[in-house]
Design brief:
The protein is of the alpha/beta class. The chain is 28% helix and 26% strand. The strands form 3 sheets. It has a 6-stranded mixed sheet with strand order 7-8-9-10-11-12, with helices on one face. The protein has a 3-stranded mixed sheet with strand order 1-3-2. It has a 3-stranded antiparallel sheet with strand order 4-5-6, with no helix packed on it. Helix 2 crosses helix 3. Its main location: membrane. Keywords: Cell cycle, Cell division, Cell membrane, Membrane, Transmembrane, Transmembrane helix. It holds the Pfam family POTRA_1. This is Cell division protein FtsQ.
C-alpha cells in the first residue's frame, strides 16, 4: 500500500505595510536647511572674493636695513581693500624685487586683513670706488648701489669687467678669518686675482680654481716671514720678500 507524502504549503507571507516616505514637514525642513547652507556659502564666497570685509588694511614690512618700509610699500603697490584671496603675491614679489637692494622677498597673507613682506637685502662683499661714489658689489658680482663713502670692513675691488665675478667668487669662498684681513682685491683678468692683506702683504691667488686648497696652503704660508705669498699653483707655493 503506497503512501503519499503530504506536501505542506508554505505559510502565506505576512503582509507588509507599504513604507511611508518622509513627512511633508520633514521634506520642507530639509529643503530649508539646504537653502540656508547654500545661501551661507554664497554669502561667504561673496564676502571673501568681492568685498573689502577681508581686504587688505595693513602692509607689514620686515627685514629692511638700508631700505625704508615706505620704499618697499610704495613699490609693492598693494591697494587698500584688495580682497586677500585675490592678491597676486607673485606679482607683488616681482615688483619689490625690482628694487636693486632686494635679493629676495616673501609675501604672506595674514588673516584677517594683513599682508606681510619679508625682505632679504643684498649685502656688500666688495666696493668699487668711482667718481660718483662707492659702488657696492654683492656676492653675485652685481653692482647694486652707490653710496657716498664705503662701509667699514668691506674690501675695495679693482677689476676688469670680465674678472669681477671671478674676483668676488674668490673673496666669498675664502675662510672668514682670511676675508677679514683683505683690504683690496685686484683682478687684471679672471686668472690673475691678487689679495692685499693687512701689513701690506700680498697674496697671488691666480684663478678661482682650487680655492679651498689654496686657502689651506695659504694658512700655512702666512706663518712664515714674507710679503708676497703665491698660491696660484698650490702644488708649488712660494713666499718672497717683495714683488717679482
Amino acid at each position: 500500500m503506497s503512501t503519499r507524502t503530504a506536501r505542506r504549503r508554505p505559510a502565506p507571507a505576512a503582509r507588509r505595510r507599504p513604507s511611508r516616505g518622509p513627512s511633508r514637514r520633514t521634506v520642507l525642513r530639509r529643503r530649508l536647511v539646504a537653502i540656508l547652507v547654500l545661501v551661507g556659502v554664497t554669502a561667504f564666497v561673496v564676502t571673501v572674493w568681492f568685498t573689502p570685509a577681508l581686504g587688505v588694511r595693513e602692509v607689514e614690512v620686515a627685514g629692511v636695513v638700508d631700505l625704508t618700509e615706505a620704499q618697499v610699500r610704495e613699490v609693492a603697490a598693494i591697494d587698500e581693500g584688495t580682497p586677500l584671496v585675490q592678491l597676486d603675491t607673485r606679482a607683488v614679489a616681482d615688483r619689490v624685487h625690482r628694487l636693486p637692494r632686494v635679493a629676495g622677498v616673501t609675501v604672506e597673507r595674514v588673516l584677517p586683513s594683513t599682508v606681510r613682506l619679508t625682505v632679504d637685502e643684498r649685502e656688500p662683499v666688495a666696493v668699487v670706488k668711482a667718481a660718483d661714489g662707492a659702488h657696492l658689489v654683492d656676492a653675485t658680482g652685481l653692482d647694486y648701489a652707490v653710496v657716498a663713502s664705503p662701509p667699514d670692513g668691506v674690501p675695495e675691488l679693482t677689476a676688469q669687467p670680465n674678472a669681477v665675478a671671478a674676483a668676488v667668487s674668490v673673496l666669498t669662498a675664502v675662510p672668514e678669518s682670511l676675508r677679514r684681513e683683505v683690504s683690496l682685491v685686484r683682478a687684471g683678468s679672471p686668472a690673475d686675482i691678487r689679495l692685499t692683506l693687512s701689513e701690506g702683504r700680498e697674496v697671488r691667488w691666480g684663478s678661482p680654481e682650487d680655492t679651498p686648497r689654496k686657502a689651506a696652503v695659504l694658512d700655512v704660508l702666512l706663518t712664515r716671514n714674507g710679503t708676497v705669498f703665491d698660491v696660484s699653483s698650490p702644488e708649488l707655493p712660494t713666499v718672497s720678500d717683495g714683488p717679482e
